[in-house]
Amino acid sequence: LVDTPRFHPDNIAPARPGLWRYRAFLPLADDAHLVSMGEGWTPLIASELAGRRCWLKLDHLFPTGSYKDRGATALISRVRELGIRRVVEDSSGNAGSAIAAYCALAGIRCRVLVPAHTSPAKLAQIRLYGADLQLVPGSREATAQAVLAEAQSTYYASHSWNPLFLQGTKTVAYEVCEQLGWRAPDALVLPVGNGTLLLGAAIGLGELLEAGVIAHLPRLVAVQAAACAPLARRFAGQAEENDAAPEPTLAEGIAIAEPVRGGQILEAVRRSGGTFLTVAEDELKQALHTAARRGLLVEPTAAAALAGLRQYLATSDDTCVVAVVTGHGLKAADKLLDLEELR
Ligand SMILES: Cc1ncc(COP(=O)(O)O)c(C=O)c1O
To answer: Which pTM was predicted?
Structure first.
């Protein structure tokens, strides 16, 4: 990684659009190759859930409709800087959309592998951005396996493995703390699959703590779907060999049975004094409705975090709790139309 200075608010460039106000802390060699649509600096709004005050970070309001643009703008900027002309990526849909969009902007050829059952709107996005889309039958793990052969000969612009992606997602932590007046929340609630949002947030928070900008680390509250909760089970100390096979879940973005950075995610949650929560499909549907009645159309994966937020607020005395809303509802319109309650 290119060296960056220690975090200091004086080095923020407020006149630059979006998350690029934090350009000084993003490890890129120069500005000539930045691939950006002015993304980031998403709203942090005060809200209320089950009679408790809370905050929502509206990261579904990115150009491609998910927080993955944080990582894609950083990673594809680096790819362009390195002079790479062709990349391959595997995804449950949103990271693939983001990588495809930023590659389109940069004029880089892009191939994206996704599970065949991915939401149609995400497939349409990837195709329209001009990527070569490959549907892989079977689970998300089958897609992760299939990409490895292609990554032998093509640059692997992986959101899960590539450290530049986490350097982009770390800006969510900067933004939340700055929007709270340079204060760390008591807890940050996030949906977790491969942990690219959680691990990025942990990097950003660690930098702010180390620089003395915030006084404590927020508890990281990692939310998984009960139907596919390998890390929540490991966190609870349940033996891996007893792991039930994952069941289908509406939360396709976090249906990750074998997270590639599982150990790092568990460590980050433990270090923060945080916890894991699991949410049932009914809770997730309820959260979709609650969010929509407040004008927030979110996809089921994002609703998982809101269902987790409800659980957390019911048991914790924390007064400043932020949940990240990670994906736009229009990305999963088919699933929303299928909800029993709307028929
Ligand atoms: C909307 C949404 N939220 C959260 C996540 C979880 O991200 P991660 O796999 O980085 O933990 C994803 C991943 O695809 C997603 O699409």
So the answer is: 0.97
